[in-house]
């Protein structure tokens, strides 16, 4: 696991230029069924990139607004991808916390939808076994159940959020 000399870069609604192809390649490597159209759509959802000391992308967070019918509110649905070599204690937590803090800071100015928090599916089997706390300490993401495919569902409510 490599964690030295990494940099977090906020790319929310900024162009990623030459990194576009590298990012899409990473997504397709870890999501083999991901179609080109969906990958291109995700480029517009980028929040943070993690880069190594050579400027290579080793981690990615994305977010998009989603109405969660069961919770009757809008959330940012977030996704994290971290290359296996860079996965280690605290790396996913650092990425999710940076993503959370940024989205919490901008959510009131980000369009007409009243967004009350973040939601994510935990698909990584190893992570589901290793991180079973009801509330993750660093990110404060709360376990609220499983998806139909057995993935953990976690939610974080922004400070001061109220439900409808």
Short summary:
The protein is α+β, with helices and mostly antiparallel strands.
Structural account:
- Strands 1-2-3-4-5-7-6 form a seven-stranded mixed sheet, with helices on both faces.
- The mean pLDDT is 90.
- It contains four helices and seven strands.
- Helix 3 links the parallel strand 4 (73-82) and strand 5.
- It has helices at residues 19-30, 36-43, 91-106, 125-130, and strands at residues 7-10, 46-51, 57-68, 73-82, 115-122, 142-146, 152-157.
- It has a single domain, classed as Gcn5-related N-acetyltransferase (GNAT) (Aminopeptidase).
What is the string of helix and strand elements? EHHEEEHEHEE
Strand order of the largest sheet: 1-2-3-4-5-7-6
Strand pairing plus helix content: what structural class?
Answer: alpha+beta
If you compute it from the alpha carbons, what radius of gyration comes out, rounded to the nearest whole angstrom?
Answer: 16 Å
Superfamily at the CATH H level? Gcn5-related N-acetyltransferase (GNAT)
How many domain regions? 1
Q: State the CATH architecture.
A: 3-Layer(aba) Sandwich
Mean pLDDT: 90
SSE layout:
Layout (H helix, E strand, L loop, with lengths): L6 E4 L8 H12 L5 H8 L2 E6 L5 E12 L4 E10 L8 H16 L8 E8 L2 H6 L11 E5 L5 E6 L7
Parallel strand pairs: 4-5
Antiparallel strand pairs: 1-2, 2-3, 3-4, 5-7, 6-7
Helix pairs in contact: 1-2
Features:
single chain; alpha+beta; Aminopeptidase; 4 helices; 26% helix; 31% strand; globular
């Amino acid at each position: 696991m490599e964690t030295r000399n990494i940099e977090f870069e906020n790319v929310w609604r900024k162009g990623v230029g030459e990194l576009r192809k590298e990012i899409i390649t990473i997504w397709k490597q870890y999501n083999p069924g991901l179609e080109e159209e969906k990958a291109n759509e995700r480029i517009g959802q980028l929040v943070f990139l993690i880069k190594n000391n050579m400027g290579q992308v080793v981690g990615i967070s994305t977010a998009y607004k989603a109405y969660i019918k069961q919770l009757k509110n809008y959330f940012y649905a977030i996704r994290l991808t971290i290359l296996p070599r860079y996965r280690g204690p605290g790396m996913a937590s650092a990425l999710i916390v940076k993503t959370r803090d940024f989205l919490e800071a901008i959510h009131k100015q980000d369009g007409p939808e009243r967004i009350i928090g973040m939601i994510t599916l935990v698909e990584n089997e190893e992570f589901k076994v290793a991180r079973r706390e009801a509330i993750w300490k660093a990110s404060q993401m709360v376990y609220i159940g499983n998806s139909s495919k057995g993935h953990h569902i976690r939610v974080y409510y922004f400070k001061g959020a109220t439900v409808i």
